[in-house]
């Protein structure tokens, strides 16, 4: 799982929860970092913060859809 949030406290909480359930966790502090990491970590789930500086969660989601056409991540609100 890849979590993306500009708040380090939120990333630490998410990491503790995800790893506590036995899943692999990667964290990114910006949308750009997340996009660079996405192929390397092969995340099956991406948890995006919506309100981030420079590239918000909606922008990141659009870029992910361009990277993986047809496979399309599902947005859960």
What does this structure look like?
The protein is an alpha/beta fold and 77 residues long. The chain is 45% helix and 12% strand. It has three helices and three strands. Strands 2-1-3 form a three-stranded parallel β-sheet, sandwiched between helices. Helix 2 runs parallel beside helix 3. The model has no long low-confidence stretch (mean pLDDT 91).
Distance, first to last CA: 17 Å
- Beta strands, count: 3
| Largest sheet: spatial strand order | 2-1-3
Overall mean pLDDT stands at 91
Shape: globular
List the helices and strands in order.
Answer: EHEHEH
Structural class: alpha/beta
The main pleated sheet reads as:
3 strands, parallel
Cα-atom radius of gyration? 12 Å
Helix content: 40-55%
The tally of helices reads 3
Q: Which range does the strand content fall in?
A: 5-15%
Low-pLDDT runs: none
